[in-house]
Amino acid sequence: MTRLLYLILAVIAAVRAAEIGVGFDLSFNHGTASVAYPNGSIVLVTKIDGDEQYKAMMRNQTWLLPQDDNDLQEAGQVDQTFLFGRLGRLQPWLRTQQPLPTAIHTMLIDLQAAVNDATGSPVLSAGVVLPLSPSQDLKSRFATAAPAFGLDELKLYFPASIWAAYPFSAPDFYTCSSPEHGVLTVDYSDAGLVATKLVDECGLVDVQETWHDLAFLAEPHTADLASGNVNVSSFRAFINEPMKVWSTDQVLGIAKILLTGSHGATPGLRNILTSALTGGAYEGKLDEMLVPQRGALKPLFLVSAGAAKESLRWQQDAWAREAEAQGR
């Protein structure tokens, strides 16, 4: 009996050791993959640039009306919201078996293959992050997408700003003694500049507001964009607007700045931030507010690393999985 118990415990330990968290970050222009292990280490796997079809799909599905539960449709698709009006709740049921758009499916297949090669074992569970709030249509498609990738589950996370902050948040809300603080995430890539203000209450992250320059939509820029091409006055006003804690109505300023994106570590972004902070409450405080981002948490991979950590936590949290299965 004792030997059998030891055997069972050894099997459980081996299974737990084999658990990995996999995170895929689908940005506007590219995708990245990271893997988190139970010992706390994170491995950066790959970055894959998207083709024009992928870039167009990501912009159409997530860019307009950020943080709104919009119903942007694929080209040529009938807007069912218009047809059914107040019966819009039927849409997820009507679209249950719709596959992911080809461009997104292809990107995820390539990222998954890279993780399989890097870990030497097939991926069974993963988290996918989208930059902003996706269309209801895209949410519905992700809800049933796991079998197409041979996965047991595929969790959809958004917006990306939450998962950029996740690796730096307190791990346990119930034992956390840190005060609430404001966080600014700034994503900088060929798709433009997107900034989001968050309130972090011991790991409970509340998205306040997102800013982007609409000029980027008309004319996507490149890595050598100078700070003068950004609407700095608008960006400055956004940064200096105070935030409120949802649970107490306490007014907060920005304590931390996190950088993401393919150009997140470039001098160009530093110049933009320096210009935006000049003349406001945070002038001269850039270095004090910037959070050191090294290794697995460097700007390019920060979001996929955060998703990988959450993917691992989710697999290890039996209570949360059971609660979701029971609809609680």
Give the name of the CATH architecture of the largest domain: 2-Layer Sandwich
What's the helical proportion of residues? 25-40%
Amino- and carboxy-terminal Cα gap: 38 Å
Please state the average pLDDT score: 79
Count of the separate structural domains: 2
Based on the model shown, name its key terms.
328 residues, alpha/beta, Nucleotidyltransferase, domain 5, four-stranded mixed sheet, 11 strands, globular
Describe what you observe in this structure.
37% of the residues lie in helices and 21% in strands. The chain is globular, with a radius of gyration of 21 Å. The protein is α/β, with parallel strands linked by helices and 328 residues long. The two termini are 38 Å apart. It folds into two domains: 2-158 and 301-325, Nucleotidyltransferase, domain 5; 170-293, 2-Layer Sandwich (Nucleotidyltransferase, domain 5), CATH 3.30.420. The chain has a five-stranded mixed β-sheet with strand order 3-2-1-4-5. Helix 2 crosses helix 5 (102-119). Helix 6 links the parallel strand 4 (125-129) and strand 5 (153-157).
Q: What's the quick description here?
A:
Helix 2 crosses helix 5 and helix 9 packs across helix 10. This protein has 13 helices and 11 strands.
Write the topology of this structure.
Elements: H1 2-18, E1 21-26, E2 30-36, E3 42-49, H2 52-62, H3 80-84, H4 91-94, H5 102-119, E4 125-129, H6 136-143, E5 153-157, H7 160-165, E6 181-189, E7 192-201, E8 204-212, H8 215-218, H9 232-240, E9 243-244, E10 251-252, E11 254-260, H10 267-277, H11 286-289, H12 302-316, H13 318-325
Parallel strand pairs: 1-4, 4-5, 6-11
Antiparallel strand pairs: 1-2, 2-3, 6-7, 7-8, 9-10
Helix pairs in contact: 2-5, 9-10
